[in-house]
Amino acid sequence: MSKRRLSALLAAIVVGTAAPVLLPAAGASAASCSSYPNWVAGRSYAAGNIVRYTDGKAYIAEHDNPGYDPVISTWYWEPYACDSGSTNPSGFVVSEAQFNQMFPNRNSFYSYNGLKNALSSYPGFANTGSDTVKKQEAAAFLANVNHETGGLVYVVEQNTANYPHYCDWSQPYGCPAGQSAYYGRGPIQLSWNFNYKAAGDALGIDLLGNPNLVQTDASVAWKTGLWYWNTQSGPGTMTPHNAMVNSAGFGQTIRSINGSLECDGRNPAQVQSRVDAYQRFVQILGTSAGANLYC
Question: PANTHER family under this entry (predicted)?
Answer without folding.
Answer: CHITINASE 12, CHITINASE-RELATED
